Amino acid sequence: MTHLHRLLALTAALVLAGCATALPPLPASVPTPPQFKEQPRQNEHWTIAQPAEAQPRGAWWKAFQDPVLDDLAERAAAGNTDIQEAAARLAQARSLLRGAQADRLPRVGVGADASRGAGASTASGAVPATLLQAGVNFSYELDLFGRLSGARDAAALDAQSRQALLQSTHLLVQAEVAQAYLALRALDTERSLVQDTAAAYADTLRLTQRRFEAGDVAELDVIRIQTELAATEAEGFALGRSRAELEHALAVLVGEPASGFTVAPADTGRVLPVIPAGVPGTVLTRRPDVAAAQASLLAAQARVGVAQAAWFPSVSLTAAAGYAAPDLGDVFKWSARAWGVGALLSVPLFDGGRREAGVQGAQAQLDAAAASYRGQVLTAFREVEDQLSALRWLQDQALAQGRAVDAAQRASTISETRYRNGLVSQLELLDARRNELINRRQAQRVEAARQQATVRLIRAMGGGWTVETPTRDT
């Protein structure tokens, strides 16, 4: 009894020591700024958005009001291979979580065995004997020090991280589809400008050739027009090649073969939505990649506790009940019944530093996860600041470029009138037309850049948003 009391006292001390072991504190994170640096200059355009961590991301691409883009986004959600891979990894993480949860439950099994060995000794030696057994086995590990619960918590956080990464993959694919599609439509508009310019050069060439045949102009004037026409047509071919590459990229994003995928050319305008910028703290609650990094950090912290729990003993309860007999016909007789219960206490004493190495490895993983989380937060802030800054400068650039287009169109109109009246040379007319084309194409590129920056800001903000329309009091 004295030894039993000592064993119980030792076990109680170990239990208290295990309960007193706390998880390591999380490393310091990045302080959240009160507002974005670019936001004060955008007060007339940007509003505050409410946190939307638990809200659906929504079909944010519908804000561009383009049915073709809506269709491509839905096809990508169903067929994109990156989304399918992320979904499979989530399923894998959830299966590991179910395995960790199963480790905390009792284990029950049935078994049967037969053995033959030396039996009772006689004058002629040991007599071989046969023993047949069949029964039910039960085992259960007491989670006194939180090792199993810590492993379950870490697996649950891993599954949560994979869920956030799946959302992040959805957002990434949606943004890539929108960017590729908007870039393709920008090329359609630019090609239309180039084709109109080439058609104008062709008309001018026919007119100039007739005037050359009549002896009114020199051959050099015809050559100049031919040069401009050929150069403009070459630019149109280059734009067509770029468009084909974007179309092929869209095919991969929606999970379809490029050979059978096509997007019909169109030159329709799209709405440029206004996105509520929110505050930096809102970004951290909305972005799924930040949520994934945070869950990975907490999982690494839980695994440090699991590694620390390896220093404490494990206690398992076992039980078995069944039948045992030397003959197969007697195995299931009531007189052959047998049973047993037991408890196993395993106390690690020396393992060559394996447990210490496990704790150090878990701590290193925690430090790495903390650094990854801080880096993800910093990247989130930078991406939002980048796009807010880009949209601000692009808006000013678009206004200035619009004035340049108006002036270039006016100059081209005046030059054409003066050329027809014989007041200026053909070279001046060509320069005016070339300058107009350059400015119109530059204006189109600025507008395309604004669309791309808008999509990137949506992605940086973590996806969709909901803006309530104010109602008037009656």
Automatic annotation (TrEMBL):
Q: How does it sit in the membrane?
A: Lipid-anchor
Q: Does the keyword Transmembrane apply?
A: yes
In terms of Pfam families, this protein maps to:
OEP
Question: Does the keyword field hold Signal?
Answer: yes
Give the main localization category: membrane
| Keyword terms, alphabetized | Lipoprotein, Membrane, Palmitate, Signal, Transmembrane, Transmembrane beta strand
| Cell location | Cell membrane
User: Which stretch is the leader sequence?
Assistant: 1-22
Listed NCBIfam families = outer_NodT
Family that this chain belongs to: Belongs to the outer membrane factor (OMF) (TC 1.B.17) family.
Q: What is this protein called?
A: Multidrug efflux system outer membrane protein
What is the taxonomic lineage of the source species? Bacteria, Pseudomonadati, Pseudomonadota, Betaproteobacteria, Burkholderiales
